[in-house]
Write a structure and sequence with these properties.
This is Thiamine biosynthesis protein ThiJ. It comes from Pseudomonas taeanensis MS-3. Pfam families: DJ-1_PfpI (PF01965). One of its GO terms (biological process) is regulation of DNA-templated transcription. The chain has 198 residues and is α/β, with parallel strands linked by helices. It has a single domain, classed as Rossmann fold (3-Layer(aba) Sandwich). A 4-stranded mixed sheet has the order 5-6-10-9, sandwiched between helices. A two-stranded parallel ribbon has the order 1-4. It has a two-stranded antiparallel sheet with strand order 2-3. Helix 5 links the parallel strand 7 and strand 8. Helix 1 packs parallel to helix 6 and helix 1 packs across helix 7. The chain is globular and about 45 Å long.
């Protein structure tokens, strides 16, 4: 899970919770013979950074640590820093080659687009940013009114809390509906999976 200055708190904390709870539930209920997920945060540097609203965060690792990655989550927020930072965009591109799934939450779609990972695809983002995403990346087909768009290896979600629903959808894809439902129940989250378009 990518972190950067001014990252939206729920954009990363919601998915972090989903994947962490899925791991706890699968162990507790013996749904899998192994841990479901190992969730890690990574940033350009392992030094503390400040998320939106002043929350201080300490990433688990830096880009130099080259953590294994099957699922890459790029959250949104104020994405000025990652959009303008070649090291971040290069790291996302290199990690995407190794990852099986790449997902964004909210304005994280801008970052994936800037990294060249959404060329010509159908995507979504926060309702407030739909027009800007379409204008800045005219090769994308930006859709609104959906919680997420799942194109197989690329998934983009709408804003903030939509990342929770998208993450539960990913848990269902990876581990099955039973694990996703058990995770949602543990979180007391009223979850209904959506088809995810197209």
């Amino acid at each position: 899970m990518l972190l950067f200055p001014e990252v939206e708190i729920l954009d990363f904390a919601g998915p972090y919770e989903v994947f962490s709870v899925a791991s706890r539930v699968t162990r507790r209920d013996r749904l899998l013979p192994h841990a479901a997920f190992e969730v890690r945060t990574v940033a350009a540097s392992a030094s503390p950074l400040t998320a939106r609203h002043g929350l201080r965060l300490i990433p688990d690792a830096s880009f130099a640590d080259e953590l294994p990655c099957d699922v890459l989550i790029v959250p949104g927020g104020v994405v000025t820093q990652p959009l303008q930072d070649r090291a971040t965009l290069n790291w996302i591109g290199a990690t995407a080659v190794r990852a099986q799934l790449i997902a964004s939450v909210c304005t994280g779609a801008f970052v994936l687009a800037e990294a060249g990972l959404l060329e010509g695809q159908m995507v979504t983002t926060h309702w407030e940013d739909i027009a800007d995403l379409q204008r800045q990346y005219p090769h994308l087909k930006v859709v609104e009114g959906v919680p997420y768009v799942d194109l197989g290896t690329r998934i983009t979600s709408a804003g903030i809390s939509a990342g929770i629903g998208m993450s539960l959808h990913l848990v269902a894809r990876i581990l099955g509906d039973e694990v996703a439902r058990a995770t949602a129940r543990q979180m007391q989250y009223d979850w209904v999976d959506h088809p995810g378009l197209p």
